[in-house]
């Protein structure tokens, strides 16, 4: 289905409300930093960070689907945009963060401080 | 008719660009693929930031302590409220943009123009806020000392409830007679000039530190989510390595902590700000075209939709910058 010419205003304001609520939740959590989230680790990151990242991806989804109107595009356009981004970004982040963590360990544990 | 109302007369002519395999006009599809490549550029920057942060995970600055200013609330610790405000501005300008696109589908010229104008105003407010944020970051608040090894030492006093409060260099530095002068082009070799001198000299900080027993050194090292504070004896030892007075931030060093922190901040928010700026400029062009009735004559407001895509993308990037610079 492509653009129908009737108005989408209701949906737009709904998404705006949703994005605002998510941002408020993020800021509130960022200021309060509840200990059980902040001091519990999962895969080298505390839970609070995971929550932030998930909320961010949720926001990105709504911006792309509702505001950039991907929900109204054909599936092949949608996939040719989303698939490369998802794959390449996860790949890059995965490699760089593992490497960063490794370099940190070398600095910390080994005797060589500035060998690279 | 094809899925979207294309702007030119190519519709229907398969071999003249009228064929739309993805159901989007040529211009719109190319805007999308530009956005894909730009998104990858930004994720490269943010991933590099993540790499450096993981590399120095034990000493990285804590964002809440760096970005805690709010207009007209001087000296109040207000972490994140200001960036949250900036995020709202950008999300809201995204909403007015999408409303403009929506009005365009219904061929309502005045409505499109009004919403475009609101979007432009939102963009300018965001840029202004960005500038203010940079100003605070560059100016700094407390000042710090860099050691021979390149570590940053900050200064605190212990409050009655056992927590630590930051102290400004100027609050404890001694006042010494000094003959230091700023080396400018006019009083030395013409091609050499020094950076601005810090408001206090290294000697003044060291002497002042020795004279004030209540002042302690806070290191960059994070333990249990807090920067460690040294005892008075350890502080005195650590201060023997003092080398440079650091006030505010530049590309070489910053008072907040690791050098790379400021570099990434300037580079990523700067690159994003540049995108916002060009977005505002393109919006202005399209706004003028709307006023002039260009799209009315064309019977299609698809150009508004295309710049809309770019504008939402800028918002999208900010959502990630917000998370990785201020929250995580």
UniProtKB/TrEMBL annotation, chain A:
GO terms for cellular component: plasma membrane. It holds the Pfam family COX4_pro. InterPro entries: Cyt_c_oxidase_su4_prok (IPR005171). The keyword Ribonucleoprotein does not apply. It is a multi-pass membrane protein. It comes from the Bacteria. The chain crosses the membrane at residues 12-32, 47-67, 79-98. Keywords: Cell membrane, Membrane, Transmembrane, Transmembrane helix. This is Cytochrome C oxidase subunit IV. It is found in: Cell membrane. The keyword Membrane applies.
UniProtKB/TrEMBL annotation, chain B:
GO terms for cellular component: plasma membrane. It is a multi-pass membrane protein. Keywords: Cell membrane, Membrane, Transmembrane, Transmembrane helix. Pfam families: COX3. It comes from the Bacteria. GO terms for molecular function: cytochrome-c oxidase activity. GO terms for biological process: aerobic electron transport chain. Residues 1-328 form the Heme-copper oxidase subunit III family profile domain. This is Cytochrome c oxidase, subunit III. It comes from Flavobacterium beibuense.
């Amino acid at each position: 289905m492509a653009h129908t010419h009737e108005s989408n205003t209701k949906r737009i304001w709904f998404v705006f409300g949703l994005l605002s609520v998510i941002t408020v939740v993020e800021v509130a959590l960022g200021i309060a930093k509840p200990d059980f989230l902040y001091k519990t680790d999962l895969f080298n990151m505390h839970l609070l960070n995971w929550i932030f990242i998930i909320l961010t991806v949720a926001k990105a989804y709504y911006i792309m689907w509702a505001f950039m109107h991907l929900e109204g595009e054909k599936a092949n356009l949608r996939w040719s945009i989303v698939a490369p981004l998802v794959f390449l970004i996860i790949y890059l982040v995965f490699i760089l963060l593992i490497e960063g963590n490794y370099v940190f360990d070398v600095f910390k544990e080994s005797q060589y401080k500035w060998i690279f | 008719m094809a899925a979207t109302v294309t702007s030119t007369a190519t519709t229907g002519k398969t071999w003249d660009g009228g064929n739309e395999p993805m159901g989007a006009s040529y211009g719109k599809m190319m805007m999308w693929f530009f956005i894909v490549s730009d998104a990858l550029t930004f994720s490269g920057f943010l991933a590099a930031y993540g790499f450096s942060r993981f590399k120095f995970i034990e000493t990285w600055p804590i964002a809440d302590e760096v970005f805690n200013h709010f207009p007209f609330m001087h000296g109040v610790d207000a972490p994140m409220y200001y960036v949250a405000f900036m995020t709202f501005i950008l999300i809201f300008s995204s909403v007015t943009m999408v409303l403009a696109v929506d009005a365009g589908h219904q061929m309502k010229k005045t409505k499109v123009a009004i919403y475009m104008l609101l979007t432009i105003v939102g963009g300018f407010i965001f840029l202004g806020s960005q500038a203010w944020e940079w100003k605070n970051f560059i100016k700094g608040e407390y000042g710090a000392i860099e050691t021979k090894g390149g570590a940053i030492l900050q200064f605190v006093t212990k409050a009655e409830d056992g927590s630590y409060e930051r102290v400004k260099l100027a609050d404890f530095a001694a006042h010494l007679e000094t003959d230091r002068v700023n080396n400018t082009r006019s009083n030395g070799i013409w091609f050499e000039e020094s950076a601005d001198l810090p408001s206090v000299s290294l000697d003044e900080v060291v002497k002042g530190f020795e004279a004030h027993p209540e002042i302690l050194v806070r290191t960059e090292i994070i333990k249990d989510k807090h920067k460690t504070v040294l005892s008075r004896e350890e502080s005195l030892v650590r201060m023997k390595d003092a080398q440079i007075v650091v006030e505010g931030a530049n590309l070489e060093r910053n008072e907040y902590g690791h050098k790379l922190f400021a570099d990434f901040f300037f580079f990523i928010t700067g690159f994003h700000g540049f995108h916002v700026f060009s977005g505002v400029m393109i919006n202005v062009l399209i706004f003028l075209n709307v006023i002039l009735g260009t799209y009315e004559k064309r019977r299609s407001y698809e150009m508004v939709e295309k710049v809309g895509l770019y504008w939402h993308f800028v918002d999208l990037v900010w959502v990630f910058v917000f998370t990785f610079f201020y929250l995580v």
